[in-house]
């Protein structure tokens, strides 16, 4: 009788282990995407503060940071990557956005003069499929109005 119950117990433990692994992976992926959501929102807030000070949108960043999307690993940016535009009063230097901690995502700031977009791109699973997080803003009646939500494409990729 005991020998019959052992395979059933092992099967139940195996199922529970699979469910636990799935839950942990989803939790880790959600924690990693929080970086992109928070940082893109900060780009929007920083752009809005810069707009209030200058009464115009800052020009686009000359290049995203890092230069290419990281595939499944973190990137440690340097201060010079964020301040490269400082002399031209543009991009990340103008909105005063910088990341000092290692990052999973590539960040970009684009501006047309009347609209801005903060962007995060990444590939957490290193499978070549990129996730994208976007926050848009538009100048209206002398104010920069930010979208109330982020546009997310394949957030867990």
What are the SSEs and their pairings?
Layout: H1 2-54, H2 79-83, H3 91-95, E1 106-111, E2 115-122, E3 131-140, E4 143-146, E5 151-153
Antiparallel strand pairs: 1-2, 2-3, 3-4, 3-5
3D structure, described in words:
The chain has 157 residues and is an alpha+beta fold. Helix content is 40%, strand content 20%. Strands 1, 2, 3, 4 and 5 form a five-stranded antiparallel sheet that branches. It starts with a helix and ends with a strand.
Summarize the structure.
The protein is α+β, with helices and mostly antiparallel strands. The protein is built from 3 helices and 5 strands.
Radius of gyration: 21 Å
Helix tally equals: 3
Strand content: 15-25%
Helicity range: 40-55%
**What's the number of extended β-strand segments?**
5
**Main β-sheet, in a few words?**
5 strands, antiparallel
Could you state the order of secondary-structure elements as H and E? HHHEEEEE
The global form is elongated
- Overall pLDDT confidence: 87
Question: Structurally, how many domains make up the residues?
Answer: 1
Give the low-pLDDT segments.
Answer: none
What are the defining features of this structure?
single chain, 157 residues, alpha+beta, five-stranded antiparallel beta sheet, 3 helices
């Amino acid at each position: 009788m005991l020998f019959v119950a052992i395979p059933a117990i092992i099967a139940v433990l195996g199922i529970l282990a699979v469910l636990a692994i799935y839950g942990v992976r989803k939790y880790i992926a959600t924690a990693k995407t929080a970086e992109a959501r928070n940082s893109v929102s900060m780009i929007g807030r920083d752009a809005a503060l810069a707009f209030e000070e200058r009464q115009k949108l800052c020009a686009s960043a000359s290049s995203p940071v890092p230069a290419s999307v990281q595939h499944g690993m973190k990137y440690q940016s340097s201060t010079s990557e964020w301040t490269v535009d400082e002399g031209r009063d543009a991009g990340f230097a103008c909105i005063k956005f910088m990341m000092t901690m290692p990052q999973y995502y590539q960040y970009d700031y684009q501006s047309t003069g009347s609209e801005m977009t903060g962007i995060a791109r990444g590939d957490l699973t290193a499978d070549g499929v990129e996730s994208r997080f976007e926050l848009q803003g538009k100048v209206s009646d002398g104010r920069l109005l930010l979208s109330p939500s982020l546009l997310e494409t394949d957030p867990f990729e």
